[in-house]
């Protein structure tokens, strides 16, 4: 019956229909998992920076908090994989490409952040997006996307691009 002229053709997805298929929800879960990978790499890099010497207690506390957040982000991403069909949103008004770009930007920013408070807030925003996506409801997802965008803008202000192409990123500041 594929040639039946009375059967309407499947409607193509518009660019504003993010998270409208299980595959798109799984793609977001992939990007959130990549952010968790980035968190782990950053924490380990910060620990290695001490060359086997003692890591100050304040840095240990931040590392523990970030590693806990990494685990939670992975768990939420895994839940999105498992529940992808239940997390479909009918009309989000955001493009899938925007969500993918935001989460990819977040993963990159985690490696460059110089202010600990910015990093902790960014991870919290990623966790919020994962939790909102799991609801399948547009309002919490849009709110989480807006909060993530705002935090990425804050980080861009606090972490201007290095002057020289080969310049090493500055060490993380202990203050927030």
Key attributes of the depicted protein:
176 residues, mainly alpha, 5 helices, elongated, disordered C terminus
What order do the helices and strands come in, and which of them pair?
Blueprint lengths: L21 H27 L8 H26 L13 H17 L3 H20 L2 H21 L18
Helix pairs in contact: 1-2, 1-3, 1-4, 2-4, 3-4, 3-5, 4-5
Task: Describe, in plain words, how this protein is organized in 3D.
The model is unreliable at 165-176 (pLDDT under 50). The protein has helices at residues 22-48, 57-82, 96-112, 116-135, 138-158. Helix content is 63%, strand content 0%. It has one domain (22-158). The chain has 176 residues and is mostly helical. The longest helix is centred in the N-terminal third of the chain and has 27 residues, at 22-48. It is elongated.
CA-based shape: elongated
SSE string, helix = H, strand = E? Answer: HHHHH
Strand content: under 5%
Radius of gyration: 19 Å
DSSP strand tally: 0
User: How many domain units?
Assistant: 1
Give the count of helical stretches: 5
Low-confidence segments, given as residue ranges, are 165-176
């Amino acid at each position: 019956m594929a040639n039946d002229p009375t059967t309407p053709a499947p409607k193509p997805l518009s660019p504003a229909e993010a998270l409208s298929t299980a595959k798109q929800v799984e793609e977001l879960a992939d990007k959130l998992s990549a952010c968790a990978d980035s968190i782990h790499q950053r924490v380990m890099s910060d620990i290695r920076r001490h060359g086997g010497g003692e890591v100050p207690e304040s840095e240990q506390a931040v590392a523990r908090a970030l590693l806990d957040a990494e685990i939670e982000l992975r768990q939420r991403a895994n839940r999105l994989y498992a529940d992808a069909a239940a997390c479909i949103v009918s009309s989000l008004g955001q493009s899938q490409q925007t969500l993918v770009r935001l989460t990819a930007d977040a993963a990159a920013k985690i490696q460059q952040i110089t202010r600990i408070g910015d990093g902790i807030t960014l991870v919290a925003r990623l966790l919020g997006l994962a939790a909102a996506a799991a609801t399948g409801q547009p309002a919490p997802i849009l709110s989480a996307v807006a909060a993530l965008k705002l935090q990425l803008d804050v980080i861009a202000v606090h972490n201007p691009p290095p002057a020289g192409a080969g310049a090493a990123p500055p060490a993380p500041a202990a203050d927030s």
